[in-house]
Each structure stands twice: as C-alpha cells, then as structure tokens.
Amino acid sequence: MDNRRLILVVALGFVLILLWQAWTKDQQQAMNVATTQAQSIPTSAIPEHAKDLPNAAPSVASQPANVETSAVSVSKISVQTDVLSLKINPRGGVIDEADLLKYPEEQNKAEPVHLLTDSNGFVYVAQSGLLGEKGSPAPDHYAEFQSQQSQYRLQPGQNELRIPLSWEKDGIKITKWFIVKRGDYTIKVEYQINNTTGQPWSASQYRQLTRLGTTPGTQLVHTYTGGVYAGDVSGSKDRLAYQKVTFEDMAKTNLSKALSNGWVAIIQHYFMSAWVPTDRQQVNNFYTLVSSKNNQTLYTIGMSSPVDSIAAGSKGELSSSLYVGPKIQSNLAPLAQGLNLTIDFGIFTVIADPIFWLLKQFYDWVGNWGWSIVLVTMVIKLFFLWPSAISYRSMAKMRAVTPKMQQLKERFGDDRQKLSQEMMKLYQKEKINPLGGCLPIVIQIPVFISLYWVLAESVELRQAPWIFWIHDLSQKDPYFVLPLLMGISMFIQQKLNPAPVDPMQQKIFAWLPVIFTVFFSFFPSGLVLYWFVNNLLSIAQQYTITRQIEKQMALTKTE
C-alpha cells in the first residue's frame, strides 16, 4: 500500500515537472531557432524580396506601376475601428501593424497589444498578393499601390470601413479592398480586377504570414508560438487535419501540400493571425518559406490558390479573410472549420472543453473569473463525491488500524514476504481496499492538467482579477499567499491520512507540502485557487468520513 501511494505521488510530481518545463520550452525553442538559420540562407541571383514569394521568382508587378493622375501616394494608411488599429503599407498592401485596442499590454495601462508590427527590430506582418501567369501583370506584396486617403476611422453609427488601394499596368486595373467591421477582428481582403486588354489575364492569389522566430518580452506561462495549418486531403469535411509547423521545422524544410477546406495561421499565447480563403472547397497549395531582412531570419507560412483567368474585356474578383486578434472560441469557430483548435487545451481537451464551458456559464452569472473557478471546483468535487467517499473510507480504516500495522512491522520487519502476507490478512479482516486511498490522486491528475491548460490558453482569463491582491488569475500570486495556504491545506489533509509504516516514506511525505508549495508558487494563481479550494472541500469530506469510521470501529470493539 505504501509503495503504491509513493508511486502515485511521484507520478503527480512528475506531472508538475512536465508542466513546469512547458513554461520555458517555447522560449528556449525561440532562442535556438533564431540562430539555426542565421547562416543558412542561400545567396543567389534571385532578388532578396523574391525569396518570400511562393514561386521564388521576381514578379513583374514589382516594377513601378502606371496610375491615374488623381490618385495621391501616401506613406502608410491608418485604419481604426473600435477593436483594431491598423497600418497598411501601400507597397504591396501589407498589413504591418495591428494593435488590439481592447487588450492592454499591461494591466491598467493604455498601451494596447501590438500583434502585427514591423518596428523596433521585430517583424510580424500579414502579406498578400497576386502572381501573374504567362506574362500577365499582377501586383505582389512589393507592388506600389496608390490610395486617395491616408486615414480611415470608424465613426459613431458606422458599421463598416472600406479602404481601396489601386494598381494599374498594361491595361490591367486592380483595386485591392480592405474591409473592416465594428466589433470584428476579421479583415476581408478583396481584389476587383478589370481586364481592359484584348488578351486573357491569368494569376493566382497567395496569402501569407511572415514573422521572426523569436518572441519579444517574457511571460510566466509559455505556450506554443509558431505556425499551424489545417486542411483536408481527401475532400471530406469530417476529416480535417490540424498540424503545427514550428519555426525550426520551417528552417529544416519547406512545406508544400495541396489541401482543401483549410487555413494557415501563426499562433502565440492568447493571440493569433490567420488567413482563411473565401472558397474553402478550392484546393490551395500550403507552403513555408525562409528569408532574411536586415540580417534577421524571417519565417513565412502561407497558401496560394490555383490560377484564375479573366477573359479579355471582362471583370473578376478574388478574396480572402484575415483574422488578427484574440483566441476566442466564439470568434474562431464560425470563421473556419477547426480554427478553434488553435486554442490548445492539450491531450485532455475532452475534459478541458466542458470545464471552460462551465467556467463561462458561471462567469456570466457572477461576473468574476475567480469565483467562477471556486464554483467549478465545487461542481467537480460534487461530481467525484462518491468515488472520493469510497477512498476516504478506505483511508479512514487504514488510519484506524495503523497501530496493528505497526505491530506487524515490528514482528515481521525482517521478512518482507511474511509481512505482506500478514498485511493482506489484516486488510481482509478489516474489509480494507489497499488501493482505495490512491483514487483521489488518480482522478484529480487529468482534471488538474485540463484546468492548467484552460487557465493558460483562455484569453478570457488574461488579466482577470479575483479579490484583494489577486489582480491577474493567469499570473502567479505576487505575494505567494495562495501557494502558502495551499501548502497548509495539503499538510492538514496529510494528517488525516494514515501515516506510512516505512520511516523513509514518512520523511518523504512530510516534505511533500513544502515541495508542492514551492512548485505552486510559480503556477497561475487561478490554478492554485482551484487546488486550495479542492483541498478545503476534501478536508471537510475526509474529516467527516474519518470520524464516522472511527466511531463505527469503536462501537464494534465494545460489542
């Protein structure tokens, strides 16, 4: 019995170590990938800008374009809605700045999260363009567009902004529209093409995300940062494949896959950007590229569509959607199939999803994520009330017969086989299940891991306060009060359990509250809150059951 308990506790400790390592894994990967390809970008006669194009060849659109004289060239175009602040570069129509106005970088400060940026030595941009076929002129993301305005701002009562960029060459007139809406993190990118020539025009549309392999700043919880894509090879909507592509993977080999019903994205802690084609059934080529800028290695993930043709004297349209914002399930699920998988709850997603749903329901009721965690903990405890009661009865009986077990230890301590036989006889006589006491630890491990990832991945809990000094449930307790209370509760609970017979195990178990307190001191305070409340409920249940069992066994002896 003691050995099995020790193994389970060690297993739980191992889980904690794995979670601990998960905090810093991505940060270390980012440091490694920054140097992996620093010297491996091949030099060739191909122009530098062509290395981040899907076909790795110069585009005819990169030459100066002929434009109408009424158009006015600007440096960068500012676009602001109620949730987004964008900067669009007329060169290529690249979105190289995107600020999330509803999400401050730091709590109680006005500076918003800068998701997309091309400044201060960091590059993370959304690029899109057209690649002409058979000599057809087309604007890639280096082409010079023209704009009539330099600023667009969503006004009160206005629900939509449309930002046009114009380009013209050899009789091909193209307007690249950016369409944004109130309260929406989705940007529609639309090409309106007017072929005024006497020849058919052919081109493919590509969309890509380009980023440095490093992550600026530091975080307590380090989740996956890198590329992801989803698509279907078979043509069945029910068999969508979701795949991560790390920056290290991009450095080693270029991705090239033909998929339908898909999308590409770069995700990080809480936030993401993703390109979603308008025609989801169309087969796109998914690709990754490695290029350089200012001696920095850049990583690109994107997709290009099949070639579209527009007859002479005809008009046509191509479009895609770009999502730039927080990883919120209600935003992502309607936009594309499987896009909500970017909210990665790990191997216990089947448990984490209902936990998050329940958290959200309680939050809608009480308006505080901390109290929502408390209520969810009570529901989880209620759900496991019956198996917990069985295990606590087993431990209470074990506690009651501890003196007898000690006597057996003294009599047969040198003969372990005989000691085990006598122990089993004692268990049978007292109707004790030696494995019953292990159940609480076993059933809590998957719930613990699931809640960890819910707290780590849910942007809804980012900077969410609870009470008093807990101003952010996704960060550690700044004064370590909750970890200390959790350690005390663990110590009290341990006193209710039967003491191990083996002296070495007694010492190990005596140090467990201290060890776990140190571990939990660096975990998100929301997770520590769950464990502390769960311990309090367990103490109350175990204390009640232990007293009942002791009374019953005392009455049995008197009879």
Rg of Cα set: 30 Å
For the largest beta-sheet, the strand count, sense and barrel status come to: 18 strands, mixed
Under CATH, the topology of the largest domain can be stated as Beta-galactosidase, Chain A, domain 5
- What is the succession of H and E elements? HEEEEEEEEEEEEHEEEEEEHHHHHHHHHH
Structural class: alpha+beta
Number of strands: 18
Q: Would you identify the regions where 5 or more consecutive residues have pLDDT less than 50? A: 1-10, 23-48, 56-73
Distance between the termini: 29 Å
How large a portion of the residues is in β-strands, by DSSP E?
25-35%
How many domains comprise the coordinates?
A: 2
Indicate the mean pLDDT: 80
CATH class of the largest domain: Mainly Beta
> How would the global form be characterised?
elongated
The assigned CATH architecture of the largest domain is Distorted Sandwich
| Helix share, percent | 25-40%
Number of DSSP helical runs: 12
How would you describe this protein?
It is built from twelve helices and 18 strands. The protein has 559 residues and is α+β, with helices and mostly antiparallel strands. It has two domains: 44-344, Distorted Sandwich (Beta-galactosidase, Chain A, domain 5); 358-383 and 438-558, no CATH class. The chain has an 18-stranded mixed sheet that branches. The two termini are 29 Å apart. Mean pLDDT is 80; it is low at 1-10, 23-48 and 56-73.
